[in-house]
Every structure is written in C-alpha cells, then in structure tokens.
Amino acid sequence: MRIGIDFGTSYTAAAAYVDGVVRHISFRGNSQFRTAVFMPEKPVDTTLFDDTAYDQAVVSNQASASIAHSKAMGDYEEAASKIRVYYRTLAKDGDLTEEGAKEQISLALSALKKPVPPSPEAIKKATLAAAKRDWVQQQLDQGRTSSVSIDESAVFGEEAIEEFFSYEAGRLIQSPKSMLGFKLGAPQREAILQIVSNILCHIRRAASDQLGVDVTEAIIGRPVLFRSSMGPEGSNQAVRLLEEAAARAGFKFVDFLHEPAAAAITYHAQSPDANRTLVVDVGGGTTDITVGLVGGHTEVPHLEETWGLAKGGTDVDLGLSLRTVMPIFGKGQCSLLAPVYVNAAMVSDLNRQKDFRDTKLTGVPAPFQKRLLTLQRNGVTVRLNRDVELLKVALSNDAEAGVSLDYIESGLQASATTSDLECGYERFLRSFDDLLSQVSKETAHSRPTVVFLTGGMSRAPYIEQAVRRHFSTVQVVHGDASLGVVGGLAIHAARSMWLSKVQ
C-alpha cells in the first residue's frame, strides 16, 4: 500500500486513501504529532511510573501557585496605581494635558506585564514532570535500564519534549525538516538522517499496524522551496536526504508532491463546482501557493503555477520569543549581544543551537546567568520554544496570555499581549505580503474567485486579513488547518499506485 505523509516543520501526519475514503493514521489517538523526537542515552521502562502517587503534591503546588499569583497581582496593582497617580499629578500641575496623561498611563500600563495565573492543568503537568524526572533518575542510579536499542526507545511528538525532562542524557530534536536544505558536515548529516529515518519508521510502523498490511511505499509532501542556505541546491539536497532516510526506515518506494498541490487535491475532492482557485498553505516553516481550476467532476485539479516562501509560523515564534521571552534571560539588560538570543530561539538550526550552548556566560549578572545556564542544557530551548508557540496560539484569541517557566526557575512566568504578537509577526507578515503582491500581479489576467486556506498558521486572523488585502472580492474557504495537505497526499498516493499498475 502507498500512503501519503505530510512531514511538516512543526507537525507530521500520514493517511491512506482506502475505498474512496481518506483514512488518517492515528498517533496516540491524534491524527498528527509534533515533529520532535527524543532518544534517551539509557532507556528506562517509564510505564512503571505511577503518577497517582503524587496527587497530594499536585494539590499543594496548585495552592502555592494561587498564593504566588495573588501576591504578584498585589504588586502589579500597586505599581499600576503609582503610574496613574504620577501622570495624573503631572496633569493636575499643568505639566501634561489630560489627554497626554491618559496616553502616558496607557503606554506605561501596557509595558507593565499583568501576571497571568497558570492553569491547574499546567501546574499538575509540571508537578508530575518533576516527579517523573526524580523517579527516572532513581531507576538509572539503581541500574534499572531497559534492554531495547536507542532507536527503538525513541519517543515522538509532545511526549518527546516531556520525556526529555525525565532524563539527564539523550538527544531531543524538533523540526529536523528545517535543516535538510542547509550545508551539513558529515556528523550533522548523519545525525539528521538518523532523526528523520526514526520519524519515518515510526510512521511506517503505525500505518502498517492500523492498515493491516506492510506499508513500504509513500508520497511525501514537500514545500516549493525548502528553508536553505544554498539556494535551489538546498531543496535538491533536502529531497535526497528524505529519500535516503525513507529507505533506512524501510520504504521501498517514495515520491514527492508539492504541498500546495496536495492541498488543491483535498479541496478538489470536496468541491462539486469548478472554480479558479488560489490555494494558500501557510505552515510552520514554509508558505506555499498554487493556482488553477479546482473542483468539479474532473479526476484531478488543473494547476498552472506555484510560488514559495521559505518562512512560516516558526518565524512568528522567533519574533515573539525575542520580544517577550528572551528579555527574561537578559536580552537588552546585560552584556550579551542580540545574536546569542537569536541562536537560543532558533531551535531548528543545529549550528545556532550549538553556538548558544557554547556561549560563555562569565560576567552575566543574576538572575540571568542561572537562567541561561539552565537554558543551555540540551533540549531546554525546545521546550521553551513550545511554550512560545502556546503563547502565539493563545494570543490569536485572547488579549493577553501567560505560560509557566518553572522548569527554568521556580515561579518564573512569561506573559505577552496582542501588541507583542503584532510585533512578533511583523517581519513574517511583510514577506507574506510581498509574496501575495507578486501572486496578485501574476494572476491579474485571470483572477481567482476562491481562496482555499490551509496549514497550521491559516488559523491566525492576520493571515486571512493579508489575503483579503490583495484578493478582496474572492470567497475565502478555510480547509482543515492541520490535515488539509495529508488528505490530498493520500488520494494522490492511491491514484499514482493504481496508474503504475495499469501502465
């Protein structure tokens, strides 16, 4: 059987087209998993860990967090009151107008971060993670390790990030797709191949178990342009590495399809009417667009042209991290230069991550030095990046949001507002706007009547707003943000396999 694989920068999914229905492969009950893998140096059988033994500790920590938040709110209200009194006094004395005072108060209060309480579930998760870490270390100290190989003990998705914190040693990597197009030395190349092949093997095994056949063939989605430091050759290298990793994972045949073309196939299968359609796929690492006649009763959509941008949601994460999270680690407040914090925030770039871990912190003042030393531990930046992503998602709906950074320092929290998010996505949105402008000019002779939006970032309201600035009269259709590509890959996989048999 031939399946479709959407090997994404942030999330990965797989599906098969069986008897006219797209059947999604399940990963721990979900149709996708975070593209992250952890390989412990010495595996432990963590199924023996009993989290119910820590119920009292959870309750105690939740109570302590409530008290700490009440104190933080008291401090915040006191500081806010002083700000209001100060500027109102200036206005009363004639040194500021009433409107000027209101404006200054608003600016000062927006800079004053309002404490956001961590949810009871987040506290429970952090408590159990700490308990599990202590338990694993006890097992390791007592020599109770598992006999499985390192590759067989690999953990994927959200669990990879959580599992990392239970071990002292091991390798945690997120978004390996982002490194495929970069210049790699021999050790880096081998490391990336091992990680990607582990992920593809995880997919192949899950698909084989659920479909009841040995799955050895796949169509893998690819962006129009991979993120790269080598121009077009970077995309060629990325494809070669994926082919080699797939072969290691047990696939005997793989082929590739542009991700926006796969999304077009998904929409084609859903739309009874043919329309000139612009398919916009905004993912974690790349943004891809295609245009053509999609829908109706033809077997496949008729696509004419594609465009690509090697930027996506992770660029928004970077901008938000530098603005709201890295100042907690001293950005703009100590002698370390901005590139150090960029290196820390770019979790998908192995070279930058190594440079950050090698950065000397002599002379960095408290509390930043201790926080940075914790952040330099292998894999901690990945967990921090996940929390930045959670902030980004929350701010798409809420005016303010916060996340606990207890794994860095007890009681430490990062908070952000929608204005922080706007600053965070400014650079990405400028590039996205330029791409849409180019597409608009090149489709002026035959304008699309429908825009089909998909990809994880398509949920963000500012993505649709940008599209409407350039295509104001079109009908905007929102596809499944997570699974809009993989369904088309599955349909194409089944069709291509059938064609190979009849030819």
TrEMBL record:
This is Hsp70 family protein. The keyword Metal-binding does not apply. Belongs to the heat shock protein 70 family. It comes from the Bacteria. Pfam families: HSP70. Keywords: ATP-binding, Nucleotide-binding.
